[in-house]
Known about the structure:
By secondary structure, the protein is an alpha/beta fold.
Amino acid sequence: xxxxxxxxxxxxxxxxxxxxxxxxxxxxxxxxxxxxxxxxxxxxxxxxxxxxxxxxxxxxxxxxxxxxxxxxxxxxxxxxxxxxxxxxxxxxxxxxxxxxxxxxxxxxxxxxxxxxxxxxxxxxxxxxxxxxxxxxxxxxxxxxxxxxxxxxxxxxxxxxxxxxxxxxxxxxxxxxxxxxxxxxxxxxxxxxxxxxxxxxxxxxxxxxxxxxxxxxxxxxxxxxxxxxxxxxxxxxxxxxxxxxxxxxxxxxxxxxxxxxxxxxxxxxxxxxxxxxxxxxxxxxxxxxxxxxxxxxxxxxxxxxxxxxxxxxxxxxxxxxxxxxxxxxxxxxxxxxxxxxxxxxxxxxxxxxxxxxxxxxxxxxxxxxxxxxxxxxxxxxxxxxxxxxxxxxxxxxxxxxxxxxxxxxxxxxxxxxxxxxxxx
Length: 423
């Protein structure tokens, strides 16, 4: 199945035109890098199959294009979306595809053996291409998880995750009509760029995709500017949390924990978090968040007990991979849908009339039985937040929240020390 998904990138079963891409918007950055001339290798975390991730050696990257920067990694994370790549079937096929090869319908992440994982990282500048003027060797930097060109219409608005020119995936274009930007370490569906769970990373368009970090900000404070902080902040801003709002947050992992805190900083009167993991619920309560354990309560009923008028805002920070009800477990097993709509339906049901629902969770494809009737009749605003445009927010978060001490990203730090001395 994975082989078929990869092949779909290259063969003509994807007979759909590239939408709204002009000659000047053609991809200008390639994922392949030139190995270091001295032949030295580095330690990396690489994908070799479902539930098969290995620590291996790979060539150290060298400057490949004049706008490149080579970063020596000092910090990297494991994102929840990395688990989607490593611990689940990566391509599910619908009956339509099985009979005609004309429609792709699945959780599609086109990975190839040896792909280097990781899209959240920071480090020090090791080497600069000849076009780099504003970065110096030894300078501390954090990388955005997306790779932006800095020149297209989206990049000019700092909407870096929507860059037109750094992702060559025909498969994503086929499924969604257009393509996101290229991402580090997140499959060939997002460009096939080697990731940050490595000792060194080639960062294309380095002056665009690296943010210098001041000396008085630690790695633990800066690292999450790569993804988690801008993603959670974007969910709150894009969904439109306002002063006095009552906000529901589905999923209290790192994104949900941060969303709850950003919502309170933006003036939310109450925040209600939904999860079932005891440690997550406790962490949220310690931050002044009311909680609902979805294993103990009917979520929709409980929300109306707590907020009879309904929520003003609901934000999905969870996952589509784990359906709760038997009906959707069966549909997922039979590959009749790729994504579970249960959280979306709970949000639509639980917000007030003209309420706002934001989706920052990474949905992949198709879901059945979405409550379109309630969406329409209540006038609910269902907002796909999209992949967060890191460049729009990261300097604001650094200057106005981290440096003044208004937001401490270290709430999500769990250290793991690995000894590769005998590797």
